[in-house]
Amino acid sequence: MSTSSLLTIGQASAQSGVSAKMIRHYEELGLVTSARTAAGYRLYNSQQLQQLAFIRKARDLGFSSHRIKELLLLWQNPARPSREVKQLANQHLAEISAKIDQLQQMQLLLQQLADACDGNDAPHCAILAALQQDKQ
Amino acid sequence: MSTSSLLTIGQASAQSGVSAKMIRHYEELGLVTSARTAAGYRLYNSQQLQQLAFIRKARDLGFSSHRIKELLLLWQNPARPSREVKQLANQHLAEISAKIDQLQQMQLLLQQLADACDGNDAPHCAILAALQQDKQ
DNA sequence: CTTGACCTTGCCATGATGGCAAGCTTTAGC
DNA sequence: GCTAAAGCTTGCCATCATGGCAAGGTCAAG
Description:
CATH topology of the largest domain in chain A: Multidrug-efflux Transporter Regulator, Chain: A, Domain 2
Strand content of chain A: under 5%
CATH class of the largest domain in chain A: Mainly Alpha
Distance between the termini of chain A: 69 Å
Oligomer: homodimer
Helix content of chain A: 55-70%
Strand order of the largest sheet of chain A: 1-2
Number of helices of chain A: 6
CATH architecture of the largest domain in chain A: Orthogonal Bundle
């Protein structure tokens, strides 16, 4: 093992794309560990670096820290059933869909109101009219 | 003015659909005010109640507290140009669209991975494989 | 007058993220 | 070898919208 290069948190951050701040945060949450120098500096080996990269990609897909933790456990378990991974993904997909639906509903309503607002110098505005309506 | 009924925060909450907790929060942010009894209890008149209802509807459309504050100012300004209201709405619509796009991007990628995951007893999983990939 | 419902403020928590500050360590330059 | 800069440590604060809890004051009904 000649290339057993250990990285400081700044280097690990640069290589993984996870900010040093968030690396420390993930450590608190139990998603990553690190060795420490005598002075207390964190040191990351290639396995931990790979783990940070994993976290970043999962985060880019919108997974919460909690689900990422579960994904990491499955990843590190050679006996995992892929069913469990897929289930986590499907739960996340359901949440994404729900959020999209909610946003599209807002978008639809608000766009209708904006379309009905003249957007000129006059004070009358369909948007404000709708917001002050007694009936929702 | 025989019906000058003043409501306590609990009653105002029930009628406006805004939790008492959030009413106090909006007060801190300067979105609503209230009178106080000698004992310090908040009291809301019908104008303030209407304002709370306005806030709730704006919130339901996803407006941030900050933008709601701006909407309230315009609402209360008889000389407002509807252009400014529409501009706020359009800014919010742009943010909604951006969020939807981001979520749809996640949805697309993750759905592809989930589709490629067998979801059985075997450990191999396309999702985990993608997350550990060196290349993003 | 007692009890229960309601009110007050203030603090803590979520979730992901950033900023700042005080202080220690390491490295690079001279 | 010393100094300065860069990098690390921890800890606290802030965002945004929202809820919970606790300690304590108030009011209405019996």
